[in-house]
């Protein structure tokens, strides 16, 4: 019998002349009933376009299928040709036989309609349900994706729910009419790691319950271990390798698959931490940066006259020190206060309380008055598009009252060379560089003032995995060469494991655990740290089962005058402590 | 140069650019007095003469050559439009940047003042100002400039606010760049594109408002020629001498069309993301 | 309802600003209103008669006292006496307002009825010949000043068909609906033309933006037909800019279409203000400008209410 879905030699092009502008070039695979195929690749590999071609949504994105065939076996065993189907035929297939979920749950739901209306629409379109019947069906659909209090949530509009909840709603909607194929296009990329684990667990469970087939698209090969039966690796519009899960993960044949598996950081529970430049106890060196009792609060105004009625406790008593040549990673999920901590240290947000001292090495003559510099997350927004690279690199010098002379220019050229860019870049403009190159430029700019501390705020998060690996390498080299101390803010445990000497885990504005990287990652003590580490996907955790957990992050809004209780700590060894839990 | 080439490659840019260039030429010729006839000379024997080879667009009630008056009128309208938009751009940029930069109280106060000005229909506000200051070329310029200042203030303030929150401004703050450096190189330099678009579109509005004011007899004063005035004068002679209405009417329309087309093209070229905010 | 409360709070501020601005501006005008009112006959007045008249209209006091009196009167619903009409200002305004309101409504109905479908049509036929046609017409429409269009219409009618637009005494809607509509139809078309063009352009670009949004793709992935996607998912999201534009244009039309009223000889608010300005009828100018600003703010409030109805994010004060 024919498999559920059979694709041969698929070709998809874009623009006026799609034949000449193909982004998918001859991709083919078969998908059996109940089977899950993971399509893995970096941005521009054509993985999403392949997925969107299956239900022909690619037509609406400006793409055209220029060749090949896509055949679907329907429930009655008739074979349906998706390429020659008319639009009315396709609308009967979409949602009914092929469901789809997308990367950004926040933007993928219609902001002006309630989620109930949006789920009911599926039932209306394919089951002809209306009124109370449709509402009841929608409630069942929400129950199925384990949304608590489903009846009430139907009345909500998307802005009232968190990203994780919205992705559940998306799943409920896609599965409303029990499609036999679910296409999931990077469904967890925009979510926090613990939420990602929840969604993955949910998908795995629903797959077991319904026996549907699934195509799971991701850039993160570590993520697929828990869910896929087969893997297809894509690069530059071609499927470079495909096969059974274990075969691909354990015996990759194609060099690109090997590269994805080996050059890219995979979380190893503390076994892959750095061995160089570890902190030595009590040698009497002064820290490069010392933060003491940092508190950042934003007033919450309410009422007619906008009086402050409370405060968002974004950062609530954070202390740490950072030695020269050391990397301290601050790890946490969105809204935990990790970025606010960084911004407060650089004076970008006003801290309510707390002291910093940065200047252990200020004695050295070449050290600038601004020993802390920063590299931002978004390489596309952190360089002024209208300035040449020369002007961009010169700005810190001008800002500190320096002159742009021959010496400065020599320095700019040398730094460019050091971060791996040609000297000719000076005359060029930011848009001529790729994301990774721009992040290198940002690093070069941060080094123009010879800082002793560099704050890296999610500095590699926006980069493709292989680019990420190379930028991390560069950062480690620069650290050794200039004795830099890094404050590395990240949500990504695998990346943190590669670069950090020490790790601070931050949750709801407070550090809950801090210490030596190996120790924290291999023997987490605080429950949140444990949860965070358990949620990290790795290729070693094949078909691992996650517990569903619908707890929400506590509100950070507190009444005026609220002070948290002073922290009490449990010590676990020379450099590892965790907050005592209530 | 790159911009010119891009305009030329853009269909409506090409048409709009050609129209604007033609008008500029006519305006300059008109202002230099290089017209087919003297625009003020009354050829008494040829009153209400229909268009022919001697008078391309005919003559008016006083026997003055319509084509020549049209050319000087265009010169007049363009002068008013250019100066008023220049003043409005200058004032709007300064106010908008100030509102965005100082924020809070200043922002609130400035934007409320702009709300007051925006609570009037443009032509009514211009009318009030002209009445206070007395009609004339310079009052028209000042009046139109005041009318469009709030719009430029808004056009600058919005993007300036979002630029101010961009990471390259954060970066500049971390190494202590001065306010003037951030304002000029990070904000203003990135505002050049949206401002160019807005200036082009505002020129179309300014031409419209100027024509409206002169139509009501509150802009350029006779015997000087202006398109609005010519159109207003044509009303009673519409049936006997339709050319008196048709040529100035078309001249106003096409000039506005030219700037609108050029503005649209510039928006596509310079600032594709702006399409939603102004249409 | 925080959002609406915040908007309401700025109301009095803007009104005070408008009134002071107008009050001061009017008093900077050279010449006095008694001369303007009586023309050459003013020369015949004795100084004592003049002073008596000035005292009657209250224009013998310094400007801040006049302003204070005016504000006090305002609080009692008294906008003062028009020197040209010899009647309370509010009465004069309210006589003219129904025509202006009707004209503005008609123009907006025309604009929305033509502009929205045209814009949606163009957006859904993006880059096709029909889209190009709509865009060209809209572009020309937006570039045609209403007074040029008015003259063209009158000329075409009289030269081509030998008919003239219905002029003469204006008959209100409730007295003679047919005659009223025949009087207002052409002015409404004149005003609605450029308005419709703007609505077309903005609904086209808003639709284009929205059609590339993620949730539209989601709707298609559920199997929604093209029609459902356009009318149910895309249009409600594309309405906000259309509402904004329509509100502003409508608000301006409520201020009177000065030039179009002139051309079609209609006794609307616009012409009344023009006359009042030229006649230096202080009380009438002040009163009507304040009235217009007030109307404009009412329209703004309606627009805000529409936002709130359209977008739950605004309802919750997130935008």
TrEMBL record, chain A:
CDD domains: ABC_NikE_OppD_transporters (cd03257). PROSITE patterns: ABC_TRANSPORTER_1, ABC_TRANSPORTER_2. Its main location: membrane. Coiled coil: none annotated. GO terms for molecular function: ATP binding; ATP hydrolysis activity. It comes from the Bacteria. This is ABC transporter ATP-binding protein. It comes from Mesorhizobium mediterraneum.
Automatic annotation (TrEMBL), chain B:
The chain crosses the membrane at residues 12-34, 78-102, 109-132, 138-156, 187-208, 243-266. It is found in: Cell membrane. It comes from the Bacteria. Residues 74-263 form the ABC transmembrane type-1 domain. GO terms for cellular component: plasma membrane. InterPro entries: BP-dependent_transpt_permease, MetI-like, MetI-like_sf. It is a multi-pass membrane protein. One of its GO terms (biological process) is transmembrane transport. Keywords: Cell membrane, Membrane, Transmembrane, Transmembrane helix, Transport. Coiled coil: none annotated. Belongs to the binding-protein-dependent transport system permease family. This is Diguanylate cyclase. The lineage of its organism: Bacteria, Pseudomonadati, Pseudomonadota, Alphaproteobacteria, Hyphomicrobiales.
UniProtKB/TrEMBL annotation, chain C:
Residues 97-303 form the ABC transmembrane type-1 domain. It is found in: Cell membrane. It comes from the Bacteria. The lineage of its organism: Bacteria, Pseudomonadati, Pseudomonadota, Alphaproteobacteria, Hyphomicrobiales. InterPro entries: BPD_transp_1_N, MetI-like, MetI-like_sf. SUPFAM superfamilies: MetI-like (SSF161098). This is Glutathione ABC transporter permease GsiC. GO terms for cellular component: plasma membrane. It is a multi-pass membrane protein. Gene3D superfamilies: MetI-like. The chain crosses the membrane at residues 103-123, 144-164, 184-202, 238-264, 284-310. Belongs to the binding-protein-dependent transport system permease family. Keywords: Cell membrane, Membrane, Transmembrane, Transmembrane helix, Transport. One of its GO terms (molecular function) is dipeptide transmembrane transporter activity.
């Amino acid at each position: 019998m024919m498999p559920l879905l059979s694709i041969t030699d698929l070709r998809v092009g874009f623009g006026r002349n799609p034949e000449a502008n193909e982004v998918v070039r001859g991709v083919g695979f078969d998908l059996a009933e109940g089977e899950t195929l993971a399509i893995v690749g970096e941005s521009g590999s054509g993985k999403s376009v392949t997925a969107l071609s299956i239900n022909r949504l690619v037509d609406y994105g400006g793409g055209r299928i220029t060749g090949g065939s896509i055949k679907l076996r329907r429930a009655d065993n008739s074979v349906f040709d998706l390429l020659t189907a008319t639009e009315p035929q396709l609308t009967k297939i979409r949602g009914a036989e092929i469901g789809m979920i997308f990367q950004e749950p926040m933007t993928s739901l219609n902001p002006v309609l309630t989620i109930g209306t949006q789920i009911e629409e599926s039932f209306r379109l394919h089951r002809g349900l209306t009124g109370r019947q449709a509402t009841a069906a929608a409630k069942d659909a929400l129950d199925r994706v384990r949304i608590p209090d489903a009846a009430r949530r139907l009345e909500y509009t998307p802005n009232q729910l968190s990203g994780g909840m919205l992705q559940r709603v998306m799943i409920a909607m896609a599965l409303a009419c029990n499609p036999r194929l679910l296409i999931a296009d990077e469904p967890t990329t925009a979510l926090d790691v613990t939420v990602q684990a929840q969604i993955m667990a949910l998908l795995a469970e629903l797959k077991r319950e319904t026996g549907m087939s699934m195509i799971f698209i991701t850039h993160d090969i570590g993520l697929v271990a828990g869910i896929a039966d087969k893997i297809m690796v894509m690069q530059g519009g071609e499927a470079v390798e495909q096969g059974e899960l274990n075969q691909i993960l354990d015996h990759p044949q194609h060099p690109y698959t090997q590269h994805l598996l080996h050059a890219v950081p995979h979380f190893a529970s503390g076994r892959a931490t750095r061995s160089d430049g570890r902190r030595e106890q009590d040698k009497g060196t002064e820290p490069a940066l010392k933060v003491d009792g940092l508190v950042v609060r934003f007033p919450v105004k309410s009422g007619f006259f906008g009086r402050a009625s409370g405060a968002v406790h974004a950062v609530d008593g954070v202390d740490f020190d950072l030695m020269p040549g050391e990397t301290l990673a601050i790890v946490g999920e969105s809204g935990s206060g990790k970025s606010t901590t960084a911004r407060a240290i650089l004076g970008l947000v006003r801290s309510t309380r707390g002291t910093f001292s940065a200047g252990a090495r200020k004695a050295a003559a070449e050290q600038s008055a601004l020993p802390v510099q920063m590299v931002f997350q978004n390489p596309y927004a952190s360089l002024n598009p209208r300035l040449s690279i020369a002007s961009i690199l010169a700005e810190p010098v001008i800002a500190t009252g320096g002159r742009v002379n021959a010496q400065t220019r020599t320095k700019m050229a040398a730094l460019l060379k050091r971060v791996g860019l040609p000297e000719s870049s000076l005359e060029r403009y930011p848009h001529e560089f790729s994301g990774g190159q721009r992040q290198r430029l940002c690093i070069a700019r941060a080094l123009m003032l010879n800082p002793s501390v560099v704050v890296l705020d999610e500095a590699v998060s926006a980069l493709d995995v292989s680019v990420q690996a190379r930028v991390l390498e560069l950062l480690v080299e620069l650290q050794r060469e200039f004795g830099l101390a890094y404050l590395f803010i990240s949500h990504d445990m695998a990346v943190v494991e590669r670069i950090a000497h020490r790790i601070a885990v931050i949750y709801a504005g407070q550090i809950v655990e801090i210490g030596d990287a190996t120790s924290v990652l291999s023997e987490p003590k605080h429950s949140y740290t444990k949860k965070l580490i358990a949620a990290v996907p790795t290729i070693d955790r094949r078909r691992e089962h996650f517990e569903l957990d619908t707890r929400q992050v506590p509100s950070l809004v507190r009444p005026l005058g609220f002070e948290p209780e002073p922290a009490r700590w449990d010590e676990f060894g020379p450099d590892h402590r965790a907050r005592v839990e209530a | 140069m790159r911009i010119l080439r891009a305009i030329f490659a853009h269909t409506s840019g090409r048409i709009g650019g050609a129209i604007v260039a033609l008008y500029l030429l006519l305006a300059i010729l008109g202002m230099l007095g290089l017209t087919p006839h003297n625009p003020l000379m009354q050829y008494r024997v040829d009153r209400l003469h229909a268009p022919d080879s001697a008078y391309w667009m005919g003559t008016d009630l006083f026997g003055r050559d319509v084509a020549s008056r049209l050319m000087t009128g265009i010169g007049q309208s363009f002068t008013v439009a250019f100066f008023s938009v220049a003043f409005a751009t200058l004032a709007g940029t300064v106010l908008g940047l100030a509102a965005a930069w100082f924020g809070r109280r200043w922002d609130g106060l400035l934007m409320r003042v702009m709300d007051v000005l925006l609570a009037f229909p443009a032509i009514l506000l211009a009318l009030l100002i002209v009445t206070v200051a007395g009609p004339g070329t310079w009052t028209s310029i000042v009046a139109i400039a005041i009318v469009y200042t709030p719009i430029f203030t808004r056009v600058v303030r919005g993007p300036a606010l979002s630029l101010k929150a961009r990471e390259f401004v954060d970066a500049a703050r971390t190494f202590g760049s001065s306010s003037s450096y951030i304002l000029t190189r990070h904000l203003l330099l990135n505002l050049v594109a949206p401002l160019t678009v807005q200036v082009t579109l505002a020129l179309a509005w300014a031409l419209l408002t100027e024509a409206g004011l002169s139509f009501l007899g509150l802009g350029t004063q006779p015997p000087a020629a202006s398109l609005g005035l010519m159109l207003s004068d044509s009303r009673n002679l519409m049936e006997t001498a339709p050319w008196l209405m048709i040529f100035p009417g078309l001249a106003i329309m096409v000039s506005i069309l030219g700037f609108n087309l050029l503005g649209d093209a510039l928006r596509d070229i310079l600032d594709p993301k702006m399409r939603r905010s102004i249409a | 309802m925080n959002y609406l409360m915040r908007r309401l709070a700025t109301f009095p501020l803007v009104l005070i600003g408008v009134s002071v601005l107008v009050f001061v501006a009017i008093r900077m005008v050279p010449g006095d209103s008694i001369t303007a009112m009586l023309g050459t006959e003013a020369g015949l007045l004795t100084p004592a008669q003049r002073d008596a008249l000035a005292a009657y209209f209250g224009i013998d006091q310094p400007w801040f006292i006049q302003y204070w009196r005016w504000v006090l009167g305002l609080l009692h619903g008294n906008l003062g006496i028009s020197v040209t009409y010899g009647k309370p200002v509010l009465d004069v305004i309210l006589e003219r307002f129904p025509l202006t309101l009707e004209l503005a409504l008609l123009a907006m109905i025309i604009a929305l009825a033509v502009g929205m479908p045209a814009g949606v049509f163009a957006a859904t036929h993006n880059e096709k010949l029909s889209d190009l046609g709509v865009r060209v017409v809209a572009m020309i429409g937006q570039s045609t000043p209403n007074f040029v269009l008015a003259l063209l219409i009158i000329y075409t009618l009289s030269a081509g068909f030998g008919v003239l637009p219905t002029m003469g005494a204006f008959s209100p809607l409730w007295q003679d609906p047919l005659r009223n509509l025949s009087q207002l139809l052409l002015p409404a078309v004149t005003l609605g033309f450029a308005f419709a063009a703007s609505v077309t352009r903005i609904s086209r670009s808003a639709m284009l933006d929205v059609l590339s949004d993620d949730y539209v793709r989601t709707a298609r992935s559920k199997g929604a037909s093209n029609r459902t996607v356009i009318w149910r998912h895309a249009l409600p999201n594309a309405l906000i800019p259309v509402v904004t534009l329509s509100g502003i244009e409508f608000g301006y039309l409520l201020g009177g279409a000065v030039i179009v009223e002139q051309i079609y000889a209609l006794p609307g608010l616009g012409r009344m203000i023009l006359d009042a300005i030229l006649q230096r009828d202080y009380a009438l100018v002040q009163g009507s400008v304040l009235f217009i600003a007030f109307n404009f703010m009412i329209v703004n409030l309606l627009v805000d209410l529409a936002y709130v109805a359209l977008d739950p994010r605004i309802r919750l004060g997130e935008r």
